[in-house]
């Protein structure tokens, strides 16, 4: 019996789930801005205590590795690596865009394509393109949304379903450029969506190095200073 702890901190949502094999036991999450530093360990302790699970009973830690918020990913990864190291259990890393896609695959036609979009700066998003078998057609990458950049997607003959936090600002241009566009509105990140993918990797022993693994930031973090 495998008990896995799942951590999602790549967005404004701070989310933690417990699962036995690939079945959800409990989830605790809050979308309250970037409050991960205050809530993440509280949620973990709360779930373990309420479900009478000792940390030593955990089989692995599953982390949403990005792309997404630099600060959120750093906090989530630090917590996941700390637990995995202290408990001497495996660490499993999942691509955040793949997690979002897995959440909606059952809701779209078999021949559809899926394009998750995570909001980044200005008109930039992180996106990827998958089919309904979760095969990667366009790898996760930073993408500036313009009429020109959307031409690659516009040439695809399948219906393309767009979703994620980058959708709202991109939708006007997508409507203009891509005639076979479809939308899944108001889909937020959640550790609930990680459970099946995390267990698949656990069974395959597809683990990452606890000491050297890092979030998938995709681009450098830039500090800004206030003007005096």
Any key phrases for this structure?
five-stranded mixed beta sheet; alpha/beta; Nucleotidyltransferase, domain 5; single chain; 228 residues; elongated; disordered C terminus
Explain this structure to me?
The protein folds into 2 domains: 3-95 and 189-204, Nucleotidyltransferase, domain 5, CATH 3.30.420; 97-184, ATPase, nucleotide binding domain (Nucleotidyltransferase, domain 5). Helix content is 29%, strand content 28%. It contains 6 helices and 10 strands. The strands form 2 sheets. It has a 5-stranded mixed sheet with strand order 3-2-1-4-5, sandwiched between helices. A hairpin with a 4-residue loop joins strand 1 and strand 2. The termini are far apart.
- Helix-and-strand structural type: alpha/beta
> Total number of β-strand segments?
10
Quote the beta fraction.
25-35%
Q: Name the quaternary structure.
A: single chain
How far the N terminus sits from the C terminus, by CA atoms, comes to 58 Å
What is the fold named in CATH at topology level of the largest domain? Nucleotidyltransferase, domain 5
Q: Give the total of domains.
A: 2
Total of helices = 6
CATH class of the largest domain: Alpha Beta
Quick check: average pLDDT? Answer: 94
Helical residues, percent: 25-40%
Low-pLDDT parts are 221-228
CATH architecture of the largest domain: 2-Layer Sandwich
**Main β-sheet description:** 5 strands, mixed
By CATH's scheme, which homologous superfamily of the largest domain applies?
A: ATPase, nucleotide binding domain
Side-by-side strand order of the widest sheet:
3-2-1-4-5
Question: H/E series, N to C?
Answer: EEEHEHEHEEEHEHEH
Q: Which radius of gyration do the C-alpha atoms yield?
A: 18 Å
The best one-word shape is elongated
């Amino acid at each position: 019996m495998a008990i896995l702890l799942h951590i999602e901190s790549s967005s404004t949502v701070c989310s933690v789930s417990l699962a036995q094999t690939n079945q959800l036991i409990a989830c605790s999450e809050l979308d309250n801005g970037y409050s991960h530093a205050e809530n993440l360990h509280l949620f973990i302790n709360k779930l373990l205590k309420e479900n009478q699970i000792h940390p030593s009973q955990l089989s692995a830690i599953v982390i949403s590795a990005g792309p997404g918020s630099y600060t959120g990913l750093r906090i989530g990864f630090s917590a996941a690596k700390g637990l995995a190291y202290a408990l001497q259990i495996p660490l499993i890393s999942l691509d955040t865009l793949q997690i979002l896609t897995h959440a909606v695959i059952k809701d779209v036609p078999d021949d559809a394509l899926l394009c998750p979009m995570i909001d980044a700066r200005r008109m930039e998003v992180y996106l990827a393109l998958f089919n309904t078998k979760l095969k990667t057609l366009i790898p996760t990458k930073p993408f500036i949304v313009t009429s020109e950049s959307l031409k690659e997607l516009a040439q695809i003959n399948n219906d393309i379903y767009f979703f994620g936090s980058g959708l709202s600002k991109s939708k006007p241009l997508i409507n203009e450029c891509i005639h076979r566009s479809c939308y899944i509105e108001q889909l937020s990140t959640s550790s609930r969506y990680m459970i099946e993918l995390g267990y698949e990797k656990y069974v395959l022993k597809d683990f990452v190095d606890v000491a050297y693994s890092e979030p998938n930031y995709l681009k450098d973090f830039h500090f800004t200073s206030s003007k005096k």
